Every structure is written in structure tokens, then in C-alpha cells.
Amino acid sequence: MAKAYPVIDDRMAQFIRQQKMFFVATAPLRGEGHINLSPKGLDTLVLLDSTTVAYLVLTGSGIETIAHLRENRRIVIMLCAFEGPPKIVRLHGRGAVIESGSSAFAMLLARFPPQKGVRSIIRVKLERISDSCGYGVPLYQYSGERKQLIEWVRHKGPDGIREYQQKNNAVSIDGLAGLSVQGD
Known about the structure:
By secondary structure, the chain is of the alpha+beta class. It contains four helices and eight strands; from the N terminus they run βαββββαββαβα. A hairpin with a 2-residue loop joins strand 4 and strand 5 (52-58). The radius of gyration is 16 Å and the shape is globular. The N and C termini lie far apart (43 Å). The mean pLDDT is 93.
């Protein structure tokens, strides 16, 4: 049975910070559009306060999350304990896309460890914070971060990333608007 909380307390904050991976889900308003679910890692999630989180969006294949947030702002972040006691945390809220080049972007970016290839930051004002048992989540052992994305970004360089974003991140698979300002 899920239990809801008014804020992220110290115990939950500690759990969130310990996780190496989280999942982000969004959906367009129209029923025939594609639901998006993305795994995230590389130390890209931070707690801004007890009801607000943010994460870095690194340059990658699609732009679905950003497109859905531009359309309707609905988002859920899920974290699972793959090691230690079983637990699942879900953070439902309204997301805002903060693109590179804005003053808010520079201010928020300072809250994260340095990363290359950041295309935006998603800030989520939480409306529902809950946890549940996680008994059905299997145990996995963390063995490190993958290096492919970091190497791909390094190899492309700032101009190559900008070009990739302009070509691949302007529109979602459902035809919704994606990035408006391309940066590195």
C-alpha cells in the first residue's frame, strides 16, 4: 500500500540521493500519442527543496519528455531500491523545461555535478510524494556508470551537439514542439 507525504523528509531525501538510477514518465494529452518512460542516471537528479526536484536532460535520442511538458507539464519520477531494503518512491508533479541560455538555467546548473552535453534542466514542483514496498523489485548490484554517452558528447564537441539537437530534438515522435533554443 502506498503512503503519501506532504514533503520529502530527511529519510526520503537520503533514499533519493542514494539511488544511482531513476525513471521519468510523461504522456501527451491526446490518447493516441505515445507515452514516454525514460531511465536516467549519471548523478543528474537533485533536491531543490522539500517539494521541488530537478534533473539534467543530457543530449540523447528523443525529445519526448520536453515535448510533453511543454504541452501539459505532467510528469512522474520513480526511484527503486535495487540494493538494500525494498522501496519505491514516486514523485508526481508539474514540470518546467529550463533550456540552456536562460538565466534560470545557469543558476540551476550550478546545483549539479559538472556534465557535458546538457540540453536542458527539468524542474518539477511536486504535487504528490509517495512510497511503497518494492517487494517485487529484483536485487541488482551497481558496478559503475556507462561511459558511452560521455564519450559520444566529447567526440561530437559543442558544434556537433548543437547540430544534433537542431536536427533531432526540435519535434517529438508525435509532432509536438521540442527544444526551442539549442545549446551545449
